[in-house]
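Each lists chain and fold; for instance:
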Amino acid sequence: MSVGIRGSPQGNVRSANVVFIIRACYIFLNGFSFVQENYMKVAISAEGTTLEAPVSRRFGISPYLIIVDLDTGELEAVRNPGSSGKRGAGVEAIVLVISKGVDAVVTGYSSPTTRKHLESNGVDVFTGVSGTIEEVLEGYKKGEIQKTQEFRSDVLDRWSFLRAGTITNAFKNSGNQFATMLPILFSVVLLMGLFNALVPGELLASLFSGSAIFDTLWGACLGSIIAGNPVNSYVIGGELLKQGVSLFAVTALIITWVTVGLVQLPAEMAALGRRFALVRNAICFILAVPIALMAVVILNAVTG
């Protein structure tokens, strides 16, 4: 029986083997605990609510988010606010992921801005993924999906829009968004009817006196407060024009409706940071006034 002696070739080999085994065990155990600790809950963008549903190509507009707890195996399918197409929906999708305590997002594609805000809140983003939710989930558990994975040509390429499946999904998503917007449009029309009946023209005339500056300011304030799909601003703006409100006010209303959102401000601060959200909304409001004034002046100059 040969015994390795310190300093002998046999002893050096055995010592190296022991060190290698210890290091391998350390790396394995630490790597395992890292995955289990940091990625316990995963959100996967999906086209449906089951494990058989395909992974959605884009996180921001995916119809659903499948949230899976890897520890308990619990699965929750939630509607993605981004699929509605309304203003602030992208921010709401980020807030939804953060509020659910998600540790990682798995999707086909995520915009750099979305990735930045998710990662700044401790949510890692894995892109370049395709297949069914079940397949992707199994691959994720096995460590086959890497954070730095490159976009594959079958996930997002230059000519992907020509595929029949892609076109079908595009029409389907557009139809879903239109179906979501339609009841809102009908509601806005009905509310404007009540508004015309209950709000006297004298009140509107007192608020919007015809002064370009003051009308623009009032319109910007109104657009900043009202929330909803941007399409609704055209309906409301048209009704206000019929009531004699100046084009300055309506233009400012539409601009701030799209760019400023006091109702969504808490969600925006939670997702993007308090300072950024406040500065962005303030700048958009300030710029909306001269932009509205210039737009109407140019329109009047062109149309004579």
